[in-house]
């Protein structure tokens, strides 16, 4: 017996110890689980808090916050963040941010130079082109419609690649408007020039200070062979000079024109659209009420798709190269719900019937002084309206054909157009049978 009596406490001891270990392991495990849960909860709360902070920073609810943010953005655009106002100080702040674009195209213009005298002479050329008193808008409109008709005949029965067609049309109109063109430009040349400009642009955007984009001899060769001269001169322009003049116009134009056409004629068809543009092209340049109504098409297009989504500056006082790059978010200024209301993302030219003071402050499609785009005084709005109306006239509205996007099936339903180049490339126009 005694050995058995002895064995019982021993057994009990083991069971108790085992249970003890098991229990403490369970408690430990529960504690760990509990701590993990607390940690998870804390992280979640932190994330939520950060998101709330971030959204009140950029999408801000209180009106003062929005006004502070707006002033801040404008001070980047107008160089007051760096206390600069004279070309000697402002040009380097801008040129550095545009350096790779300059190299890819061999540009020597106001956007890329640090020399006040080159800046001045470029502005003189640009303004003589833009402020030409004898511009015939009806002739430009007809250039656009005849180019579009040729494109439509070029791909009978198939669907039209809208990005390419818009690029060709915009480039043709810009070249005709800017230069003497001694002989008709072949479609093949227009395709190569527009594609190469696109390629060079992408290369410039993806390059770093260590890998600079090289100029395109294909692009330069095609531009040289056109033998273009300025209207007031017989000097045949080298490709770099042609690009310096056309890039700020053409490259900022075609995406706005394409997106505005899609929004106005397909995604937000409005019963007031035909009346709004019925006087185009005759009204263009007239400063009449009819023209003001028509130009709201361009104004609303430029609101949702400003030619530059962001305006980059290079801070002269910050030595760290990455931190020195600042930008103002023009796209957000133009779409902010606290500024534009709940319909901020909708295309509605009538909103320009009357803007609130805050909307007027935040609407900056041509940037600000001292480097406001020379196209600001009506030329840009007229050019966009002329080209968009031409597309509407030739391609018709949603009744005549339909549009779809092979690269962005969702995007075409959401009614907010993605403006990244690859997304724009997918838009097709198909005539209804
Ligand atoms: C630049 O913009 C800021 C913010 O709106 C403004 O306070 C300042 O007066 C502007 N500077 C100039 C020179 O216009
Ligand atoms: C451009 O000029 C060159 C040399 O004068 C000439 O050979 C060429 O045919 C011209 N090209 C066009 C498109 O006019």
Automatic annotation (TrEMBL):
Question: Looking at the keywords, is Membrane present?
Answer: yes
Entry keywords, A to Z? Membrane, Transmembrane, Transmembrane helix
**Which SUPFAM superfamilies would you find in this protein's record?**
Cytochrome P450 (SSF48264)
Is Membrane tagged as a keyword? Answer: yes
Residue ranges crossing the lipid bilayer per the database entry? 12-38
InterPro entries per the UniProt record, alphabetical: Cyt_P450_sf
- Give the top-rank taxon of the lineage listed in the UniProt record for this protein: Eukaryota
The molecular function terms of the Gene Ontology recorded here are: heme binding; iron ion binding; monooxygenase activity; oxidoreductase activity, acting on paired donors, with incorporation or reduction of molecular oxygen
UniProt name for this protein? Cytochrome P450
Q: Which organism is it from?
A: Apiosordaria backusii
